[in-house]
Amino acid sequence: MKRLFFYAWASPATVLGLLFIPVASLSGGKVQVVDGVIEICGGLVTRFLQDGMFLIGSAGAMTLGHVVLGQDEPCLVSSRVHERVHVAQYERWGPLMIPLYLVFCLSARLRGGHAYWDNRFEREAFGKKLT
Question: Which pTM was predicted?
Answer without folding.
Answer: 0.92
